[in-house]
Structure formats: C-alpha cells, structure tokens
Amino acid sequence: MRRAGYPPPGGGGRRRRGGAGPSSPMSAPFEERSGVVPCGTPWGRWYQTLEEVFIEVQVPPGTRAKDVRCSLQSRHIALAVRGQEVLQGKLFDSTITDEGTWTLEDRKLIRIVLMKTNRDAGNCWTSLLENEYAADPWVQDQMQRKLTLERFQRENPGFDFSGAEISGNYSKGGPDFSSLEK
Q1: Which of 41, 57, 106, 170 is most open to solvent, judged by the fewest CB atoms within 10 Å of its CB?
Q2: Which UniProt keywords apply (predicted)?
Q3: How far apart, in Å, are the Cα atoms of 167 and each of 87, 146, 149, 172?
Q4: For residue range 12-43, what is the model confidence (pLDDT) as tens digits?
C-alpha cells in the first residue's frame, strides 16, 4: 500500500490522540517535540513510538514509484528497489496490515510506517526483524525510556514530558500507577 505526501519527521506531522489545543506547543505529536531514537542500518534507519514503527530507506536518486515493490503483512515485510532486494523478513512483532503504508519522498527516500498491534509502553521492539537490525543495548535503553515518557504523556495530557529525563524502573513501560487512587 502506498500513501503520498506523508510528512517528514519534525515537519507538520499528523495529529494523534492527547495533547492540547492547536495553539499550544503540546499540539504537535510527542516524537516531534522530543525527537526520535533511531537505529541505523546499512540501508537507512528505523525508529518507533508507542503506536508505530518507522522505516526510512535511502534509495538511488531518481527512483520512481514503479521501481519499488513493497509488501507489508502483519508479521512480514519485503522491499525491493529496481529488482534488488533491500529488506525482507519476519518483523519483530505483529502489525496491523491495513494500516501499513509506504511513500517515496523526493525520489530518494522510502518511508514505511507500520502500526503496532500491541501499543503498550512495554512493547519496545529491540530489533526491526527477528534476529536482524537489532538496536545496540544503549539505543534499546534510550528507546524504552522514550516509550515510557510517551506513555506518561498520554496518561497525563496536561504535562509536557518531551524534554524530561527518566531513571530507575522504566523497563517494560515503567511503573504502573493505574491502581492508585486519584
């Protein structure tokens, strides 16, 4: 599936649940305010939010949409450009097939967006594919911290966690405060 015109990171992204009104600095999605934690690969990079996994693939300048073959399934991805396989394999976790999209930007970048099936802060993908494109331990730690802060932001929409630091127990999404009385 292909969707034209998906905005680049930090540039007019689509609105997500939570946040404040349009004139508030918190109206931009969390990852636009706080940056992303990318995992570099030979072909580009990938990163994640609570809800989505983003894959950015550098392709030869002048690539056209008809040169691209992209198959997005719940647990499998395949990408070929000009007949050359770029990426193929079983995804780290399941995604919602109908929500997956790809775009070709400026005829030199393919951006793939996958919607996670499990959108819990404890569901931090440690690699893009099973046994391939794993984030190093430091990047994994930073990704988990980011997802935990994103979860706190969603649970507390009046606060801005985009510049916050976190320490202590944040693995698997951090502490669960849902049972506490308000």
Answers
A1: 106
A2: Acetylation, Centromere, Chromosome, Cytoplasm, Cytoskeleton, Kinetochore, Phosphoprotein
A3: 35, 11, 11, 13
A4: 333 333 334 444 455 566 666 667 899 999 99
